[in-house]
Write a structure and sequence with these properties.
Elements (H helix, E strand, L loop, with lengths): L7 H16 L11 H23 L9 H45 L9 H24 L1
């Protein structure tokens, strides 16, 4: 089967606008900028934010946010932020639950001496002590390096 290659001009047509955007400062490094450049960057970011707010929440189309529109925008943004926070919390809790499950399976696999698929109190204590010793040895080895 013969592979068909795209012409070089097609690649340039796609890539060139991105190259010019990067070169023109579309991607700015705030941390390497001088204080004056940082102030200019902040002004541009704030202007973009303000324009986005007006575009999204200006209901009467006058190009400005009235106090009522501004209050509605604040409520909407607060509600959206709370929803994102709730989603993040749920994701963290799910990850923690999965971690605990994985940890428990590994503990059983490693320290279940009698093979009953469960850790007795003695097996759990032995496992926790072993892991603690291993962690201390690892820390000591890292400190020596």
């Amino acid at each position: 089967m013969k592979t068909k290659h795209l012409p070089k001009s097609f690649f340039l047509l796609i890539f060139l606008p991105f190259a010019f955007a990067i070169r023109a400062g579309a991607v700015e490094n705030y941390h390497d900028a001088s204080p004056e450049e940082r102030a200019a960057i902040r002004e541009r970011v704030n202007a973009r934010r303000q324009a986005a707010m007006v575009e999204r929440f200006d209901l009467d189309g006058d190009g400005k946010l009235t106090p009522e529109e501004y209050a509605a925008a604040q409520e909407t943004l607060q509600r959206e932020w709370q929803q994102r926070q709730a989603q993040r919390r749920a994701a963290v809790e799910a990850n923690q639950k999965q971690f605990r499950t994985n940890r428990d399976v590994l503990m059983i696999h490693r320290f279940d001496r009698n093979g009953d698929g469960r850790l007795s109190d003695a097996e759990r204590q032995e496992g926790e002590a072993t892991i603690r010793r291993e962690q201390e040895a690892h820390r000591a080895k890292r400190e020596r390096q």
